[in-house]
Specification:
It is a single chain. This protein has five domains: 196 residues, Rossmann fold (3-Layer(aba) Sandwich); 127 residues, Rossmann fold (3-Layer(aba) Sandwich), CATH 3.40.50; 106 residues, Arc Repressor Mutant, subunit A (Orthogonal Bundle); 76 residues; 63 residues, Arc Repressor Mutant, subunit A, CATH 1.10.10. Helices cover 45% and strands 16% of the residues. Strands 3-4-2-5-6-1-7 form a seven-stranded parallel beta sheet, sandwiched between helices. The protein has a six-stranded parallel beta sheet with strand order 8-13-12-9-11-10. Strands 14-19-15 form a three-stranded antiparallel beta sheet. Strand 20 and strand 21 form a beta hairpin. Helix 2 packs parallel to helix 3, helix 18 packs across helix 19 and helix 23 packs across helix 25.
């Protein structure tokens, strides 16, 4: 472990590992398949990056989050750790060069999106790659029981057919129920059950549910009373801007963030919030992946999420510095009806899903029997406008088609322009001598960027224009001309969502969405909704206990959440309260006494029993009929 600690200090500046990091690193370094369960902010990436640097060969990292993948690769390369990414936003030529560089160029990390794993061009090169470790991030995506199932994850185990048997797999997730844990181990074909987990209990987070009708007034008033930075999560892009404006009008430094914004604008907003220039960011769930800000003092959910997993992951972005922080859910009677309405939109009728599949194929001009493994730029707004489709219905239909394995659908990715020199340095010099008009521009390129002879390098036309005092259009024309002369390969930047066909286009009757599977998926979704609304509705159970129980972890009452604090006002210890409650429950299971009789039957001091009975009545755990008889509300 001394070598691992030296690497941690050299590259990350820490002298010791966080809880569980060291155990996971020891396990994979010993060649064992390992499932690491770590809460959000627990430092998952260190568990594969540190051994990946120490071990001989290349660490293969599979992650569905393209933006996070690109960010980690850029960060590793800035640390002079050779790393490369392969995802659906790249051309076939870029992917081929990246793979060849990994085979011959001593790259330490190769990041791959899951839909690329089953590509023949990728699998065919695997035997030539010297792999030290396979890390599977967001491993819960492999399970149909999970909240974010992706069929492409099911093909990851195929890698074992192309790599040596002693290369360990490391699966990582921050949100897995016991069923999902078993699924991960089975579907990744682990050589033995090896689960390392740290408690999901975030003892510094105060979980609160506030039942308010006027959320706006409550939000402004509360944020003005507390200190520090925070996140307000909402479910719609439009609302993110509206609530940010409301906060600004209330004297709070705030901004909004969602996936529909230009990539540069998103980066700027996130940087302003991370540096403290902006205090509060109002965001959709597009905001959060890769956030490194440790001093977030509150995370407030304006809208109720549709699963405990989502809520736990998003609220877990508070208090990563282990200082007190608050996770607040705003809840109103109208929220339940909104969830029921979203349920109808979430599951369009099967025939409607087939309509949208056919419309998509026509929109992308994919003939029957073709399209497999093809990647298409996709503009959702243009698509729904052309075919006059409701946006939410179209989006959810695409999500269902993805779940059924017909296609992959990525959120919008911001791909910068890329350049690769396809001639040798000697031939380039000869070209410069013979073509003086290009000499200055080629020198500018070579001064500004490195690595362009070995692979594609991201460039900025705007930055080149500023450095050279040329217009952006002139820079663009130089790049296009050099590309046409086969001196460089130039791929102009673009911002686009992508559709990847994982199967050829089928005729309508060939699209198989079984009613049983459709109902199963819907039923699992409803179960997750019920668990989430149950969390919001309860007035008696400790919120931490509910969250931890969902992930298969037992715990005692936290004493900090809103329900625990209300109990604490009874001036009873947690132990006393629970003892009296259990006794009352037992008495009521055998009969229906009135309050006086119940107090008499109890063995604890009368004044303490009365306090607990009153509390249970106030919270509808005990019901009283017209004859004042009591019964337990099951």
């Amino acid at each position: 472990m001394e070598e691992f600690r030296t690497i941690l200090t050299r590259y990350w500046g820490f002298t010791s590992f966080r809880p569980l990091q060291e155990e996971i690193i020891r396990s994979v370094a010993g060649g064992r398949d390992t499932l690491g369960l770590m809460p959000t902010g627990g430092g998952k990436s260190v568990t594969f990056q540190v051994p990946g640097l120490a071990l001989e060969g290349t660490c293969l990292v599979i992650t569905p989050l393209i933006a996070l993948m690109k960010e980690q690769v850029e960060r590793l390369n800035r640390m002079e750790i050779r790393s490369v990414a392969i995802h659906s936003g790249m051309s076939r030529e870029e992917i081929d060069i990246a793979l060849e560089n990994c085979i011959y160029g001593d790259y330490k990390f190769l990041y791959v999106s899951p839909e690329r794993v089953s590509m023949q061009s990728f699998q065919g090169r695997l035997p030539r790659l010297s792999l030290s470790l396979v890390a599977v991030d967001e491993a819960h995506c492999i399970s149909q029981w999970g909240y974010d199932f992706r069929p492409s994850y099911l093909k990851i185990a195929q890698l074992r057919n192309f790599i040596p048997a002693n290369v360990p797999f490391l699966a990582l997730t921050a949100s897995a129920t016991p069923q999902v844990i078993d699924d991960i181990i089975e579907k990744l074909e682990f050589r033995g059950k090896n689960i390392l987990r740290t408690s999901f209990n975030r003892k510094n987070i105060y979980y609160l549910v506030r039942k308010v009708d006027d959320k706006g007034s409550y939000l402004v008033k509360t944020i003005n009373k507390v200190k520090g930075s925070g996140i307000v999560y909402v479910r719609s892009r439009k609302r993110s801007a509206e609530i940010a404006r409301l906060l600004v009008e209330g004297g709070i430094s705030a901004d909004y963030y969602h996936a529909g914004l230009d990539g540069e604008i998103r980066d700027r907003k996130q940087a302003a919030w991370s540096s403290g220039e902006i205090r509060v960011i109002v965001a959709t769930n597009a905001f959060g992946m890769g956030i490194d800000k440790a001093d977030v003092r509150f995370v407030i959910h304006w809208d109720i999420p549709d699963s405990i997993e989502s809520y736990f992951q998003e609220s877990g972005r508070a208090g990563r510095d282990n200082k007190p922080a608050f996770a607040v859910l705003l809840y109103s009677p109208a929220d339940k009806s909104r969830l029921n309405s979203s349920l109808r939109q979430k599951f369009p009728p099967v025939e409607r899903i087939k309509d949208i599949y056919e419309a998509l194929c026509n929109y992308l001009q994919v003939p029957h029997g073709s399209g497999k493994d093809n990647v298409f730029d996709f503009n959702m707004y243009d698509f729904v406008s052309k075919y006059r489709l409701p946006v939410i219905e179209a989006y959810n239909s695409l999500q269902f088609l993805q779940r059924e394995g017909y296609m992959e659908f990525t959120e919008e990715i911001n791909n910068p322009s890329r350049v690769h020199f396809v001639v040798s340095r000697d031939d380039l010099y000869k070209f410069q001598v013979a073509n003086e008009s290009f000499d200055g521009f080629i020198k500018l390129l070579l001064r500004s960027y490195t690595g362009m002879f070995t692979g594609f390098v991201a460039i900025s036309e705007e930055a080149l224009a500023r450095k050279s005092a040329l217009s952006r259009d002139t820079v663009y024309q130089f790049l296009v001309k050099l590309s046409s002369l086969n001196i460089i390969r130039y791929i102009p930047g673009k911002k686009s969502a992508l559709v990847i066909f994982t199967e050829e286009r089928l005729v309508r009757k060939g699209i198989l969405i079984s009613p049983e599977n459709y109902l199963y998926v819907k039923e699992k979704y409803i179960q997750r909704l019920d668990k989430m609304t149950g969390y919001a509705d309860t007035q008696t159970r400790c919120r931490s206990v509910i969250l931890l129980e969902y992930f298969g972890e037992e715990s005692e009452r936290c004493g900090r959440c809103d329900t625990c604090l209300e109990r604490n006002e009874l001036e009873l210890s947690r132990y006393e309260f629970d003892l009296i409650l259990e006794e009352i429950k037992g008495i009521l299971s055998d009969g229906t006494p009135d309050a006086e009789e119940l107090v008499r039957l109890a063995t604890h001091p009368e004044e303490k029993v009365i306090k607990v009975i009153r509390w249970l009545l106030d919270h509808n755990k005990i019901l009283q009929d017209e004859e004042r008889k009591l019964r337990w509300n099951s």
